[in-house]
Amino acid sequence: MPSPLVQTQIAGHSIPELAAQYSTPLYVYDAQTIVQRIAELKRFDVIRFAQKACSNIAVLDLMRRHGVLVDAVSSGEVARAVAAGFKLGPGEPAQVVYTADIFDRESLDLVINQGVPVNCGSPDMLDQYGARSAELGKAPLGVTLRVNPGFGHGHSQKTNTGGEQSKHGIWHTDIADCKQRAGRHGLSITGLHMHIGSGTDLEHLGQVCGALEKTALEIGPSIHSISAGGGISTPYREGDVRADLSGYFELWDAARRRLAEAFGHAVSLEIEPGRYLAAESGWLISEVRAVKQQGNNLFYLVDAGFNNLARPILYGAYHPMTICPGEGGEASGEGRASTGEPSAPRLSNHTDGATHGHPTQKVVVGGPLCESGDIFTQDEGGFVNQRELPEARVGDFLVIGCAGAYGAVMGSNYNSKPLAAEVLIEEGKAHLVRERQTSDDLLRGEKLVSY
Ligand code: LLP
What segment(s) does the record annotate as region Disordered (predicted)? Predict the structure, then answer.
């Protein structure tokens, strides 16, 4: 069965109506999908959402209300956690953990003054945390270590966070040194964490478990928590299957039990997903603004670009796409009321393979930015690909799926484009959870030189 390439609703809401009310480009999140994903991970003691994947405070608040905790990689993410209702400070488990490979000066002082527990990704972080705590006259909390086990994996080399090519984590042979450093600062190493990459398979992720157990034994009974990190892939393409996590939990649970046995006390088991919780909950709605034939390629040019969704240009990432007829028409040309816009050129290679009787054609989907790489249908080498999509005209909507993780958060103001609005649909109601930026927002903080 071909997947439906024509889509008219998101979580029961009409796409043209959403677009009319909030304009495009528009991110829409379905709370129900997030809640479902959370439920699938409930066997872990702590689900810590890697908020870098989707840090809108309404999404974070939704996670919080469903028992999920968060990490933060910057002082900005700490502020987001607070705005979403998370409490700062130590705890068993702490609601917010700062996890990074460096401290900038602002975050170093923030975590010490606010008592935010730290997951150190470099030996320098340990030293800076210990030394600055002493300078500020604050008793340091116990720290956890993010260890690079010497191997990694990911959907792209750019998202592989383990091994010697990766800047992440404390190198696995530096554990004894870190124990000494921690000791010099009166710091206890209370937990261990590994994250080898994003969008990887359970076989590679499973290898982390053995490496982490070995490292935990090397550190000893000061360890009270272990974290499996994130990285679980989600289905993006038709035919992709969602990972079966039951065996994965069993693997980690068994390691945790062995460690608890060895240490003589309970060891808590965390998981730290980003994509798994957020990716499938989000769509990016764009409007088709031009349809043009250039040699062998028929382009749909939409009003969203890599300023809104950077994953295709960065990683050649594949996102599912659908067409939604604009107001007053069908996606297919026949029988469609005129929008008053120029009609799209038609190719002769219609395959009629799509559902709902809409003819399809091979197209390249691009955005509005003045850069040739602003193409949503491309592979990792940057080669433009054609995608089979229903016929579309100016005024129809192109909807990009699986955009909830690393979508809006990686948006930029390139070409002085405003960040898109975001809507969260919860319990049947659509809530505007981020206003589209205005021209004033874009200019805020800039100043002319005064002569
Ligand atoms: N924990 C740590 C320490 C991380 O660095 C990350 C992701 C995660 C957890 C969550 O990983 P996830 O479960 O989402 O795979 N922009 C890229 C992904 C970069 C991920 C960075 N770190 C993308 O769009 O694929």
Answer: 329-359
Tell me the C-alpha distance between 102 and 441, whole Å. 30
Out of 235, 256, 272, a domain closes at 272
Number of domains in the chain: 2
Closest to 321 in 3D by CA, of 274, 368, 362:
362
Instruction: Please check whether residues 256 and 291 belong to one and the same domain.
Output: no
Per-residue pLDDT of 230-246, as tens digits, reads 999 999 998 898 888 88
* Burial class (CB within 10 angstroms; exposed 0-12, middle 13-18, buried 19+) of 268: middle
Range of the domain at 398: 279-443
Query: Which of 15-24, 195-204, 252-261, 346-355 has the least mean pLDDT?
Result: 346-355
* Domain annotation covers residue 98: yes
The reply to whether 146 and 239 lie within a common domain is: yes
Strands (DSSP E) contained in 375-418 are: 387-390, 397-400
Model confidence over 395-416: pLDDT tens digits?
Answer: 999 999 999 999 999 999 999 9
**Residue 284's domain is classified under what CATH number?**
2.40.37.10
pLDDT band at 96 (very low <50, low <70, confident <90, very high): very high
- CATH number for the domain harbouring residue 94: 3.20.20.10
Q: Ligand 1 pocket check: which of 47, 198, 281 to mutate, most ligand atoms within 8 Å of Cβ?
A: 198
Kindly state the tokens that stand for 271.
Answer: 């998981």
The response to whether residue 272 sits with its C-beta less than 6 Å from ligand 1 reads: yes
ipTM above 0.90, yes or no: yes
370 among known catalytic residues: yes
Any known ligand binding at 406?
yes
- How many angstroms separate the CA atoms of 289 and 325, rounded? 13
Atom of ligand 1 nearest to the CA of 410: 16
- Listed residues 244, 272, 300: the one ending a domain: 272
Tokens representing 407 are 């979508």
CB environment 68-96: b (16+ within 10 A), e (fewer): bbbbbbbbebbebbbebebebeeeebbbb
Look at residues 338, 358, 341 and name the one whose alpha carbon lies nearest to residue 350. 358
For residues 306 and 162, state if they share a domain: no
DSSP 223: -
Entry pTM: 0.93
Helix extents (H) in 29-122? 31-40, 57-65, 75-83, 105-114
Q: Is 98 flagged in the annotation as binding?
A: no
